[in-house]
Amino acid sequence: MKPEPVEHRGGCHCGAVTFSVRAPRAVRVQRCNCSLCEMLGYEHLIVPARDFTLLTGRDALSTYTFNTGTAKHHFCRHCGVKSFYVPRSNPDGYSVNLRCVDRATFDAVTYEDFDGQQWEASAPALAHLSR
Questions:
Q1: Each residue of 18-45: pLDDT tens digit?
Q2: Structural domains of the chain sorted by starting position, each given as residue range(s) with its CATH number in brackets
Q3: Which secondary structure element, helix H or strand E, spans residue 26, and what is its range?
Q4: pLDDT tens digit string along 68-86?
Q5: Strand (E) positions, 33-107?
Q6: Where on the phi/psi map is residue 54: left (φ > 0), alpha (ψ -120 to 50), or beta?
Q7: How far apart are CA 9 and CA 31, in angstroms?
Q8: Which helix (H) or strand (E) holds 121?
């Protein structure tokens, strides 16, 4: 039996951007070593688009793209925090930075390392996360 998802809430540092995400209480989160995630310390909780809701701050978001332009990195233009984005590996979903989510609604977090430095070879292992 698949665990029942619950609502988790999060946002940026200044509070201008807030969101909710539906996910189980026990989650698997990826830590990536690509050039951007390594610098940011980003912890990926990847969910289908239907399980992500931007609550406030659409007008506070600025978007950064690079390389193929597929990933849409959304930052709060006030505090600079990237609390979520549309990942290249899962363009039909969102990656939420677990560091930006209230941890009180989680029972367990399991970390998996993801080799983003070898992105082309590693990415297929993430494709199922947004389905």
A1: 999 999 999 999 999 988 888 889 999 9
A2: 6-125 (2.170.150.70)
A3: strand 26-32
A4: 889 999 999 999 999 999 9
A5: 43-48, 52-56, 61-64, 72-76, 84-86, 93-97
A6: beta
A7: 20
A8: helix 119-122
